[in-house]
Amino acid sequence: MQTILVTGATGFVGSALAASMLHAGDHVVAVSRNDPDGQRTRDAIAEAIAGFELPANDEAMARLTVINAADQRLPDAVDDSTLRKVNLVWHCAADMRYSFRHIQASFDTNVADTAILYDRVNTEAPACKRFYHMSTAYTVGANVPVVPEKLAASNPCFNAYQMTKWGAEHMLRSMHAAPRVPVTLFRPTAVVGHARTGWCVRNDYAFYMFASAIVEAGKAGHHSLQLDLSLEGHPDLVPVDQVIADAVALSQRDDQGYAFEVFHSSTGKLLSTLRMLQLVGRHAGVRVTFGAPVSDIDQAINASIAVNKFFADGSWSFERTKLDEAIHAPARVPQMDEKMLTRLIRWYYPAS
Fold it and tell me: Over the stretch 4-14, which tens digit does the pLDDT of each residue have?
């Protein structure tokens, strides 16, 4: 039984991680913003427990402590006595906005708060064995054919989220040195719903941005859409349960070691972007094709998804060899196929 500090526990991945850690028998200290009575965090974790179809019991929730970061920076909300009990940190809190209009807020959350938290863990958490930083596989930028599990030396990013996550990775690398707490950069690809249940936090992010645009077009009575996207696109969608299984396996290693680690949580690129969005269209009653926009609705939908065009047009191959070796994975993880994706679509859009 470990005591694990989880930031961002009201978010999609953070709530699922906290739920699974509680299910594994660990104590979880969840740090959240704007949650004075802790109920928002508890509700998010309870929703994840239901979404993963884990047994809900009072004994597990009794091992959850919620700390509210009110007017403080998130890393400063944890008192010294709590930090002294922490065995692992999973830093999942992030500002995921793309716009450079929010670059200062993104930097404060994704870089500065990460540095402050890591520094506090080093000075005030003597029992902490490893600091896990939830990053993103896309810090490498766009259209890199094969992405190794290592730092990207240059900064090819073109939105505030990518750029500040890239900065946080390099900042942690520069701060990491013996005898400081070892660091793992944990990089999921594009996280989607639970492979079996379909559960997801509805936020229309990444893949769901495209899917929601198609579904809304169908609801408005449009039966065809032409999207200005590449036929070569093959995104790597990773179900949230795979991300959490990887994270839990890393946390349960008997020997956390001292090395600076970089791991990708990915499943591969089986389906093309076109086929993925055609499956959404089939569900919504919309024929989806790729090409230059023709109608007014084509123009409007293309404008609404432009911020994520790089994601849809990309065809990355993310290595996960080091991760599989670290957790002694028995076999290659299942790839996102049509049956699995259809299940996710039907859960997210039950009434369409």
Answer: 999 999 999 99
Contact between 167 and 139 under an 8 Å Cβ cutoff? The reply is: no
Find the angle CA(17)-CA(23)-CA(28) to the nearest 5 degrees: 60
- In terms of Cβ atoms closer than 10 Å to its own Cβ (0-12, 13-18, 19+), residue 199 is buried
Which runs of consecutive H residues, i.e. helices, occur in the chain?
12-23, 39-51, 58-61, 80-83, 103-107, 113-124, 160-175, 207-219, 240-251, 273-284, 296-305, 309-313, 321-327, 338-348
* pLDDT at residue 257 greater than cutoff 80: yes
Distance CA 307, CA 100 (A): 12
pTM across the whole model: 0.95
Q: What is the pLDDT of residues 20-54, one digit of tens each?
A: 999 999 999 999 988 899 999 999 999 999 999 99
How many CB atoms neighbour CB 247 within 10 A? 25
Locate 342 and state its tokens: 């259809």
Confidence check: pLDDT of 331 > 90: no
Instruction: Categorize the per-residue pLDDT at 190 as very low, low, confident or very high, splitting at 50, 70 and 90.
Output: very high
Read off the pLDDT of residues 272-286 as tens digits, 9 standing for 90 and up: 999 999 999 999 999
Q: Do 183 and 131 meet the contact criterion of CB atoms below 8 Å apart? A: yes
d(CA 90, CA 134): 7
* Residue 92, φ and ψ in degrees, nearest 5: -105, -15
Do 269 and 236 form a contact (C-beta atoms < 8 A)?
A: yes
CB 160 within 8 A of CB 330: no
Q: Is the dihedral of CA 168, 173, 174, 176 positive or negative?
A: positive
Structural domains of the chain, with CATH: 3-191+237-265 (3.40.50.720), 203-235+270-315+337-348 (3.90.25)
Tens of pLDDT, residue by residue over 133-154, are: 999 999 987 667 889 999 988 7
Neighbours of 261 (CB within 10 A): 19
Instruction: Please say whether the beta carbons of 202 and 348 come within 8 A.
Output: yes
Per DSSP, the three-state class of 227 is: strand
Give the C-alpha separation, 150 to 147, whole Å. Answer: 8
